[in-house]
Amino acid sequence: MTTLRARQMPVLRGVEPCASCGARISSVCAAIDEKDLERLAVLAAPMQVPAGRSFITEGDPAEHFFTVTAGTAKLFKLLPDGRRQITGFASIGTFLGLAVSSSYAFSAEAVEDTQVCRFSRPRLRQFIDDFPAMERRLLDVASNELVAAQEQMLLLGRKTARERVASFLLARESCAVCGIPTSPEARIRLPMARTDIADYLGLTVETISRTMTRLRSEGLIDMLSPTEIVLRNRAALEGLAAGMS
Amino acid sequence: MTTLRARQMPVLRGVEPCASCGARISSVCAAIDEKDLERLAVLAAPMQVPAGRSFITEGDPAEHFFTVTAGTAKLFKLLPDGRRQITGFASIGTFLGLAVSSSYAFSAEAVEDTQVCRFSRPRLRQFIDDFPAMERRLLDVASNELVAAQEQMLLLGRKTARERVASFLLARESCAVCGIPTSPEARIRLPMARTDIADYLGLTVETISRTMTRLRSEGLIDMLSPTEIVLRNRAALEGLAAGMS
DNA sequence: CGTGCTTTTGAAAATCATCAAGTATAGTGG
DNA sequence: CCACTATACTTGATGATTTTCAAAAGCACG
Question: Chain B: nearest CA to A18, how far in angstroms?
Fold first, then answer.
């Protein structure tokens, strides 16, 4: 399989310079000063990824880094028989492609219409060498992801279905960049399908559906639509998520 | 809970300088030149951790980094009711404590008698700032761990008990630093207890035991003792581990 | 207003967990 | 050195959570 060909994925060079990038504050690019931003901008290739399209394929030669600047993507690994594990969702500010190996360790596909910035791996590497602040920022990013990964291992290895779903909803809520600031009664948007949630939580679609239905019937959440959730009883959900059921 | 007090954990300053450290090749310290090693050595506090003793406690203020120089430690997270997820085993060369947060995200406990090098967090941070090669190495380490974590998520979320155990044994085998170089019929040493394996694979002790017994009865492995395994049919195990059962 | 896909709901089945007990192993002290 | 205790590992029977299989209900889109 191939990664992003120009024909498939229009590169809008110059259309969205780093200086005006909405992802700048939260992303690794925040490490770069206003004045040096121009140097970064020439390396960045902004591109649109329509919902459902894959832009990183596990095993392909890792020629690029990516930064998500809008939308949501899912990162996943597959087993030969099709079983899938989503290892994370990438939204605005997420940096993708950290890997020492020469090939990607996971695939990435847009969950909804998404914008990413593509960087040539060797060129960005060179840029990083010139800006140690960037390297440091990358280490912070990687460290944070490592912590999140460990938390997810705890979820996958030891939490019940109920606890997993509660954890997921709370994580979505506090994911500030995903939407509106956290407030009681705030709506949580779930741009990903139930299947994706299932593959992220190590469960099946049916279990996700049943569990959410039950949480609703117990008054812990509201479902305005399959993709719009309201947390009605935050304390109870937090208890669940922490494993104090 | 407290982390490492001097009384509990003798600090053997100077006993094992970095220059002669067996972990040097594989660890982050490899990034440092012979000539600068002295500067690193003064920061390092080598210490013994007897089997069963904990030396990092989740939630405690993260005041130190650690490098494992001998033995094996388990890293884990706990749920309030005692459920445990081991997120990894640390052996010679493993760097511990990467986290942006001010408190540890996991606990660490020696599986067998273990030696670690302890570094004051702020001091090592300063050292790293002076040696960009070290920062780069840390990023590589973090990236590799991230890839491993994703692989483990796939295992925990989507693999069967058999597949998990097969994956584990193969991972132990190819863990070059853990023992003798890989060769057919080579013995795999499992210094950790069955409970630890269970908590690492998201299963129970009984399932681990049953699964290994079955692998043995099928001729895929040999068990010289509970802690000494021989892979008899590597191809079959690899098929299992890859999910092609 | 179909058509196709996602989500939900139901019933049966299966993997793995739990409970329980027996066996082996290691460490301790007489 | 050997019995004794504690711990770890193994094995068996039972049970439960979750999966699988199946189908209906909701929605979006042409």
Answer: 24
CA-to-CA distance for B121 and A98, rounded, in angstroms?
24
Query: By 3-state DSSP, what share of chain A in percent is helix, strand and coil, each rounded to 5?
Result: 40, 25, 35
**Strand C: which nucleotides have any atom within 7 A of a protein Cβ?**
6-11, 15-20, 25-26
Region for A59 from its dihedrals, namely left if φ exceeds 0, alpha if ψ lies in -120 to 50, beta otherwise: left
What count of other Cβ atoms lies within 10 Å of the Cβ of residue A76?
Answer: 24
State how far the Cα of B173 lies from the Cα of B171, in Å rounded to an integer. 5
Q: A76 forms bridges with which residues in the sheet?
A: A86, A107
Partner-chain contact B202 A156, CB within 8 Å: yes
In this prediction, residue B182 carries a pLDDT of 55
Q: Which residues of chain B have pLDDT under 70?
A: 1-16, 176-184
Work out the burial of residue A132: count CB atoms within 10 Å of its CB; fewer than 13 is exposed, 13-18 middle, 19 or more buried: middle
- CB-nearest partner of A135 from B80, B132, B152: B132
Give pLDDT tens digits for B146-161: 999 999 999 999 999 9
Cite the DSSP H helix spans in chain A: 37-41, 121-130, 132-158, 161-174, 194-201, 205-217, 234-241
